UniProtKB/TrEMBL annotation:
<feature type="compositionally biased region" description="Basic residues">
    <location>
        <begin position="155"/>
        <end position="165"/>
    </location>
</feature>
<feature type="domain" description="DUF6852">
    <location>
        <begin position="53"/>
        <end position="118"/>
    </location>
</feature>
<protein>
    <submittedName>
        <fullName>DUF5606 domain-containing protein</fullName>
    </submittedName>
</protein>
<feature type="compositionally biased region" description="Low complexity">
    <location>
        <begin position="129"/>
        <end position="140"/>
    </location>
</feature>
<dbReference type="Pfam" id="PF18347">
    <property type="entry name" value="DUF5606"/>
</dbReference>
<dbReference type="InterPro" id="IPR049281">
    <property type="entry name" value="BVU_3817-like_C_sf"/>
</dbReference>
<dbReference type="InterPro" id="IPR049282">
    <property type="entry name" value="BVU_3817_N_sf"/>
</dbReference>
<feature type="domain" description="DUF5606">
    <location>
        <begin position="3"/>
        <end position="50"/>
    </location>
</feature>
<feature type="region of interest" description="Disordered">
    <location>
        <begin position="129"/>
        <end position="165"/>
    </location>
</feature>
<dbReference type="InterPro" id="IPR041218">
    <property type="entry name" value="DUF5606"/>
</dbReference>
<dbReference type="Pfam" id="PF21186">
    <property type="entry name" value="DUF6852"/>
</dbReference>
<dbReference type="InterPro" id="IPR049280">
    <property type="entry name" value="DUF6852"/>
</dbReference>
Length: 165
């Protein structure tokens, strides 16, 4: 899934797509039907890119994209307003090794609500852009020793004599 450019803004519900960047922050557009525009000032708003979010795990942190992938493969995803125990049980099926003490029920509700927003979007089914892989370098030529280049002496700047007033 390609979650590049999708962010969550602290204090704002839902998810946002980063459209552009200006001097003070980002121009964002909501992913809901209203397509609300927002200018997020970096000095006051906290932005979290979905492709960089991790969930506390018992041994290692779990990437949110991995959890979304397991949720996509799950038979049914509960609604956000379902019972907290039901949500926690479902979350154990998609992120079995999450840290129960550090992952709160509000976090689970937020992740499930994000999934419901993203599941029908085309970006959710497309592949993430892979990092460019460097091709193998051609056979290295034997290195030639180069003579050290002597540095030219730096010219000293002369100060103009001070004018008397």
């Amino acid at each position: 899934m390609n979650l590049q450019g999708i962010v969550a803004v602290s204090g704002k519900p839902g998810l946002w797509r980063a459209l552009a960047q200006n001097k003070t922050g980002y121009v964002l557009e909501s992913l809901d039907a209203q397509k609300t525009k927002l200018i997020a000032n970096l000095s006051t708003a906290k932005l979290a890119a979905l492709n960089e979010i991790t969930i506390f795990g018992l041994e290692d942190d779990i990437k949110l994209t991995d959890v979304f992938g397991r949720m996509k493969d799950a038979a049914s995803v509960p609604a956000v307003k379902d019972d907290g125990k039901k949500l926690r049980e479902f979350f154990y099926t998609v992120a079995a090794d999450h840290d129960e003490e550090k992952v709160y029920s509000s976090d689970i509700k937020k992740i499930i609500s994000w999934f419901h927003i993203l599941k029908d979007m085309p970006l959710f089914s497309e592949e993430a852009p892979a990092a460019p892989v460097a091709d193998e370098a051609p056979a290295a030529e034997p290195e030639k020793e180069e003579a050290p280049v002597a540095e030219a002496p730096k010219a000293k700047a002369k100060k103009a004599p001070a004018k008397k007033a």
